[in-house]
Amino acid sequence: MSWVYLVSAGLLEIVWAYAMKQSQGFTRLFPTAVMLATMIGSFGLLSLSLKTLPLGTAYTIWTGIGAVGAFLVGIIVLGEAVSLLRVVAAILLVSGLVLMKLSAPA
Description:
mainly alpha; 79% helix
């Protein structure tokens, strides 16, 4: 169940990052509220996953999901620039996440 909590926390991290962008410096109420709610949920789920997962593994995967997810949302939803180096960096991040998962105890 810890892995479900961790992946869910990572997905919520993507949502709060996007909502933070949409809040335009916390000047828009709804995106700011979404950001705060999903941030609390993300931290709460990360905390639950840490009951059984190693800190280094859980934190790395949590931030990696958020980083790669925010990168994809930026490109797909916000129309941010795509370059070969950015794509290679994202692939390296995902590779690191896979290796971290494979190295973690079940």
